[in-house]
Amino acid sequence: MSKFLHIANGFKRVVFPNVCVCCGREHTEEQRQICSFCLRDRFEDGNPENKKVSSDSLLPEGIVVQHALWQFDKGGDLQNLLHQLKYERLTTVGCDLGRALGRRVQSHPGIMDLFNNHESVIVPVPLHYLKYRYRGFNQAFKLAQGFQEIWEEVPICKIDDIIRIKNTRSQTGFSLEKRLKNMSKAFRVKNKGLINNRLSVIIDDVFTTGATTFELADSLKKAGAGPVIILTVAQA
């Protein structure tokens, strides 16, 4: 039987090879969409010096770290990966990217100190229920699932713990002022006990001006959360 399965698996790899959705090369790891080379070496580190803030943004009170895995490459491979995750339902891409983000923060001393000194909870940026129904999933939650595979002891907020009550328009092309107005009072914390005094680890795909994650962080702090950190795959 084992010999038959070995032959069958070999045939499967020939007919349906595992191909990296980023570079198109064949790789051997199952349950993954992105090869090790692309996850490790293809993109520019978003915060090589492990600063508390990887962008040019000033962090509001209560947000202690903002960190991006990679620099965004408009029109490039990373933008294409995030587009495939968000609009083409390649949800395994989200888990791959989330794992990469989870491993990367293990080499950030400031973030490690926070994890070591606080009980934590992972907070994927919520989608409005209409967008969730249309899309069928939340890309930030897929990133969070991959992240949790590295940080197994840290729970993830469930879909009803923190909700998006404002069906906001796309922020693309908006000024900072308009982005902030667009996101004002967009979130509600329903399960305050889950975040009470805990380190809230906000997970999202792209950090641009921070309007979305800052508004979410404000809602968390008003509901009793401890310090907040913002972690994203890309930084525009």
What does the secondary structure layout of this molecule look like, with pairings?
Blueprint (H helix, E strand, L loop, with lengths): L1 H14 L20 H7 L20 E9 L5 H11 L3 H15 L3 H9 L2 E5 L4 H7 L3 H12 L11 E3 L11 H8 L3 E3 L2 H4 L3 E9 L3 H12 L5 E8 L1
Parallel strand pairs: 1-6, 2-5, 5-6
Antiparallel strand pairs: 3-4
Helix pairs in contact: 3-4, 4-7
Describe what this molecule looks like in 3D.
The protein has 236 residues and is of the alpha/beta class. Helices cover 42% and strands 16% of the residues. It has two domains: 1-42, no CATH class; 44-235, Rossmann fold. The protein has ten helices and six strands; from the N terminus they run ααβαααβααβαβαβαβ.
Overall mean pLDDT: 89
Radius of gyration: 19 Å
Shape: globular
Distance between the termini: 52 Å
Uncertain residue segments: 4-16
Strand tally, please?
6
Question: What structural category arises from helix and sheet content?
Answer: alpha/beta
**CATH architectural grouping of the largest domain:** 3-Layer(aba) Sandwich
- How are the strands of the biggest sheet laid out side by side? 1-6-5-2
Oligomer: single chain
Quick one: CATH class of the largest domain? Answer: Alpha Beta
- Look up the CATH topology of the largest domain: Rossmann fold
Pattern of helices and strands? HHEHHHEHHEHEHEHE
